[in-house]
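Saturday, quiet lab. Running sequence design on the structure tokens for the scaffold JK sent over.
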């Protein structure tokens, strides 16, 4: 297996910070995204390499293993476990204890995969490496359940994203990580959701919050208004003498509850009363008359 310099792919060096890695990944992911480069095989290959590099370097533990073991970083866990087993056997079955050196790492795996490594029960079985990925979505994308294709380590994985998934939430897809060793189980894929909000609503768990600019006359006299919800406008009655910062709740007009089909949070609307400006002389006179009445 040829060595892949993930730092070079992202235009970075080993001193790069987490912020540097995230910034470089977003820059190149946008540049080589398949949607912006249709039918461009070179861009598609580059996009896969960028995702693979980010998957390793953005994960603290994976980055440590990559920095230490290079191209064999995915098997670092197996190497260290085998090293511990070797020490245990020597300690309990006589002989002097010895350690594998880092230089022996690649030779160890060549022997292991060829069937040369064995413990008391033959070739040791090891679970595959877990993979980590980050999926960027907009709040509107997670209002409905949808299917997406995610490219991880050059493989396209079709997954269903349930409505109501939260920002920062991590879901596990069993068996879609690295391949197991010597018949061991595959690792898992952990997907972290990064959800941007470009709507006029603030989300807090399953509830939504927004404001409505209410004119003074409607606030004083009452009437009907049209307010925005996440799925469109609805009519709402305003009570006479409504005060500034009055809150009203629209039950069931919030965000879908994760994995509870048909259940929604609530929408809370705060009224902000607009004071009229640029009054005409007639309007000023009417307000003066009203003041006298009060």
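Result came back. Writing it out in full:
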């Amino acid at each position: 297996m040829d060595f892949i310099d993930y730092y070079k792919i992202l235009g970075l060096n080993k001193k790069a910070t987490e912020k540097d890695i995230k910034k470089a990944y977003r820059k190149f992911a946008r540049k080589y995204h398949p949607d912006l480069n249709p039918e461009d095989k070179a861009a598609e290959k580059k996009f896969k390499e960028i995702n693979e590099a980010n998957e390793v370097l953005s994960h603290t533990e994976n980055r440590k293993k990559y920095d230490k073991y290079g191209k064999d970083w995915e098997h670092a866990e197996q190497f260290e476990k085998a090293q511990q087993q070797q020490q245990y056997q020597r300690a309990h079955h006589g002989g002097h204890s010895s350690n594998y050196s880092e230089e022996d790492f690649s030779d160890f795996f060549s022997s292991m995969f060829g069937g040369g490594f064995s413990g008391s029960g033959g070739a040791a079985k090891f679970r595959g490496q877990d993979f980590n990925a980050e999926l960027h979505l907009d709040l509107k994308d997670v209002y409905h359940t949808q299917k997406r294709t995610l490219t991880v380590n050059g493989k396209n994985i079709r997954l269903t994203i349930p409505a109501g998934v939260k920002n920062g939430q991590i879901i596990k897809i069993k068996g879609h990580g690295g391949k197991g060793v010597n018949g061991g189980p595959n690792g898992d894929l952990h997907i972290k959701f990064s959800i941007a909000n470009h709507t006029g609503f603030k989300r807090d768990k399953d509830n939504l919050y927004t404001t409505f600019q209410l004119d003074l006359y409607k606030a004083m006299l009452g009437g009907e208004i049209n307010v925005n919800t996440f799925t469109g406008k609805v009519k709402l009655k305003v009570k006479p003498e409504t005060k500034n910062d009055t809150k009203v709740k629209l039950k069931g007009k919030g965000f879908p509850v994760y994995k509870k089909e048909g259940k929604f949070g609530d929408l809370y609307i705060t009224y902000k009363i607009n004071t009229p400006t640029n009054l005409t002389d007639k309007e000023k006179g009417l307000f003066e008359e009203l003041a006298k009445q009060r």
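Notes for JK: Helices lie at 6-9, 18-32, 41-57, 60-69, 76-92, 105-113, 216-221, 281-293. The CA atoms of residues 136 and 194 lie 5 Å apart. Ask whether to fix the surface positions before the next round.
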